[in-house]
C-alpha cells in the first residue's frame, strides 16, 4: 500500500511538472480556432482576424476550422470534448453558448461548466430595417405602425434562436405585441425576402444590412446597441428612440476546454488582449465593435447575465426549439 501511495505521489508530481513545462513553452505547434458556423459571417470574420494576430504573435500557424450545424453546437461540442492543452479554441456567439442550451433539451455539453472563458472578442449590433414601401420614416413612427398592425405583420431572422430573432422577440415584449416570427435557414435568405417585400421588417447584423441601406433598397429605423455606431452615427439607437435599455448584439466569445491549465489560459488571454488592441481599427471597418468584457471573470459574469436575460425573453414569448 505504501509503495502504491508513493508511486501515485511520484506520478502526480511528474504530471504537474509536465503540465507546468507545457504551459511555460506554449505554444509549440499549430493551433486551431473552431467556428460552429459557415465562413463569411460575423463570427467567422472575428475568428479569422484573431487567428491572424495570434499567428503573428506566436510564430505558429493558427487556423480557423469551420464546423457549421445545429446552431453552432457541433463546433462547441468539439471544443468541450477536446484535449485541454490550449491548441483547440472556440469562437462562438451567444447562439450556441446561451440561447441554444435554453431552447434545446438535449445538449452534449454544459455551456457553463465545460468551457473556460477568455474574453468577449467582438460585438456586432443589428440594424432594424424595413422594406421601403412601408410608411414609417423613423423608429417612433415604426413603433406606432407595429402596434396598430401587429396581427398582420411578421418579422424575419436567420433562424430560431439567432440574435436577430431574439432582438425581434425583445422588441415584441417591449411594445407589448405579438408579431409573427418567420425563421429562415440563414440571415441572407431572410434579407433576400425582405428586399423582395415578402416580409416587412427584420433585425439584421450591421455588416449584412448596411450595404442595402446605403443603396436605398432598405430603410433603417434604428440600431440595436446602446450606443450609436461610429461607422454609422446617423442611425439612432432603439434605446434613445423610446425603449430605454434596449440592447442586443451578436457578441462572440473565446473559449477553451474547462480543464486547460491556468498558465495556458493566462497566456492565451494576455495575447488575445494584445491582438484585440492591434485589431481595433480593422474590426471596426468590418462592423465589429470591441467589448468591455475582456477578462475571464467579466466574460463569465456576462454569460451568466445573458442566460438570465434571454431565458426570460424565451419563456415569456413561448419560444420552442426546432
Write the layout of secondary structure elements.
Layout: H1 2-25, E1 31-35, H2 42-58, E2 62-66, H3 73-80, E3 88-93, H4 94-103, E4 115-130, H5 139-149, E5 154-157, H6 163-175, E6 180-183, H7 187-195, E7 201-205, H8 206-214, E8 219-223, E9 249-257, H9 262-285, H10 296-317
Parallel strand pairs: 1-2, 1-3, 5-6, 5-7
Antiparallel strand pairs: 3-9, 4-7, 4-8, 4-9
Helix pairs in contact: 1-9, 2-9, 4-10, 6-10
The total tally of domains equals 2
Low-confidence stretches: none
Arithmetic mean of pLDDT: 91
CATH fold description of the largest domain: D-Maltodextrin-Binding Protein, domain 2
Instruction: Spell the H/E element sequence.
Output: HEHEHEHEHEHEHEHEEHH
Radius of gyration of CA atoms, rounded to a whole number? 22 Å
Helix content: 40-55%
* Broad shape: globular
Distance between the termini: 55 Å
Alpha plus pi helix count = 10
Précis, in short:
The chain has 322 residues and is an alpha/beta fold. Helices cover 46% and strands 18% of the residues.
Task: Give a description of the structure.
The relative contact order is 0.18. The N and C termini lie far apart (55 Å). Strands 1, 2, 3, 4, 5, 6, 7, 8 and 9 form a nine-stranded mixed beta sheet that branches. Helices cover 46% and strands 18% of the residues. It has ten helices and nine strands. The chain folds into two domains: 2-124 and 250-317, D-Maltodextrin-Binding Protein, domain 2 (3-Layer(aba) Sandwich), CATH 3.40.190.150; 125-223, Periplasmic binding protein-like II (D-Maltodextrin-Binding Protein, domain 2, 3-Layer(aba) Sandwich), CATH 3.40.190. Helix 1 (2-25) packs parallel to helix 9 (262-285), helix 2 crosses helix 9 (262-285) and helix 6 packs across helix 10. The model has no long low-confidence stretch (mean pLDDT 91). The chain has 322 residues and is of the alpha/beta class. The chain has helices spanning 2-25, 42-58, 73-80, 94-103, 139-149, 163-175, 187-195, 206-214, 262-285, 296-317, and strands spanning 31-35, 62-66, 88-93, 115-130, 154-157, 180-183, 201-205, 219-223, 249-257.
